[in-house]
Design brief:
The protein is of the alpha+beta class and about 130 residues long. The chain has two helices and five strands; from the N terminus they run αβββββα. α1 packs antiparallel against α2.
Length: about 130
């Protein structure tokens, strides 16, 4: 019985986190003003000296309301993005050096919702097993 209670608590936690991250990602996606930006450079850095894992840092430049913004870090690297390529980004109107990215929140939200679904199935199976024992 205690395992079912822990599973239900985990289900609720993952469900709430998933809904929060997904809704945050969706609302972030709807913010900002679209601007065409140029990818100036992509810097790759190893996470650790002995590791094969690499993080990519993308730096862009764009013009917003007549002012040029350069060397702005953009946190949404994806395959196919290369130096010199033009991409569409969303810029915060009140803070033009802030570029909105929502992909991590949405991916995290989807992951949490999938986990909650798996935990939910586990709960149902545990309850069926307990009923079968009675």
């Amino acid at each position: 019985m205690w395992s079912i209670i822990k599973s239900i608590l985990a289900f609720i936690l993952f469900l709430c986190m998933g809904v929060y991250l997904l809704s945050n990602g969706i609302s972030t996606r709807n913010k900002g003003i679209e601007v065409e930006a140029t990818v100036d450079r992509i810097v790759s850095k190893k996470r650790r000296a002995a590791s094969r894992e690499v993080d990519y840092y993308v730096y862009i430049s764009y013009e917003f309301k007549g002012k040029k913004y350069e060397d702005i870090e953009y946190d949404a690297y994806s395959f196919g993005v290369s130096e010199g390529k033009t991409i569409t980004v969303k810029v915060d109107e009140n803070n033009p050096t802030h570029v909105y990215t929502s992909s991590w929140n949405m991916a995290g939200g989807i992951f949490m919702l999938v986990c909650s679904a798996i935990i939910g199935v586990t709960i149902v199976l545990e309850i069926k097993e307990l009923r079968a024992k009675k």
